[in-house]
């Protein structure tokens, strides 16, 4: 296949008609000199196969797909990582280092913070439509008692979809599938069908309590449902990339799902028995899971489960 990219969303057609001619586009973004290696590298690379890699480091895990058509990224960490991401991508790219797309798995800044830099480097940003809507909206985050400020338009995805979009490039198909009401209300998991790899975004935090962003439309039940979607598409050979934590497989995802279900059920039983949120926290029903403490501790996990079931904070 030559540089033919087929994308099954109407939005893409609209975006294409607004795009500058290819020649002018490439001249504008010509990169005659190679990018310079970072003086203090912050990222590490793990290779899944010759054409699929993961960048680890602070922020969400970045999927890097390479091949003759160019580069597609899943997420792009923080703005401070942009230069190093672009450097690493150039190292990994091989025959074609054109940056085609970045799929944001959701709106959080540790997954979309480099969007303006990636656009500058030639990428189209695509995501579920709620990502674009929330990026342009100022709203309260009750969990952190802080405002989520609207982001500048430079961060917003330019291609959006409601349920699913497919990218056909580098001889493979990548499907971005919306998982409703999960980590947020705008999550997608990305399924690379032929290489049998799934990037879960933040619907999966491996080996740690997940952040369930209820204030951005997420729920613990939706997180579990997202696990089920991925499990239904997995076999014993599937490589699972979490949003945070190390690469795993179907067995690891199965364990993570069981943990979420246990958290859900323990909180639900107490809530249905009439206990208050404070009483449940004091009872420490997740004490045996203390090794999962992350930036979300047991009390934060209980609170997220409580709110996912309709409980209020006051
Ligand atoms: Zn997130």
TrEMBL record:
Concerning SMART domains, the annotation shows: Lactamase_B
What residue range is the signal peptide?
1-20
Cite the entry's keywords alphabetically: Hydrolase, Metal-binding, Signal, Zinc
Molecular function terms, GO-annotated: hydrolase activity; metal ion binding
Q: What Pfam family is a match for this entry? A: Lactamase_B
Cofactors that this protein relies on? Zn(2+)
Describe the location of the Metallo-beta-lactamase domain by residue ranges.
59-244
Domain of life from the UniProt record: Bacteria
PANTHER family the record matches? HYDROXYACYLGLUTATHIONE HYDROLASE GLOC
For this entry, the protein name equals Cyclase
